[in-house]
Give the backbone structure.
Amino acid sequence: MILMIAIFGCSIKGTIELVEAERAYDVAEERSLKKVDVFNWTMADAYIKKAREEYSNSNYETAAVLARKCKTTLEKIQPPVDSSEMPPKQPATPKQKSDKTSGEK
């Protein structure tokens, strides 16, 4: 009985982790983050593919670990900042020269 609970617990946890990683991967793909950071995208892609493979081989715990790695790797990718969201540039003000001839210390 305890063995059955342990087996189902790992498979459920692995399924949840894999689904969350798949969702994060799909969102990143829609936002075209592949072009922003090729290295982290390639790592996330490898993690999600390996997680799917491990899940299909009933290695649920390993699949969950790989899915978490995929999510954290995707979180490292910073999307480009939209220029409309940036504050307008302030004109540079000229620096005031200090008056050294006044004799104040």
Remarks:
- The radius of gyration is 25 Å.
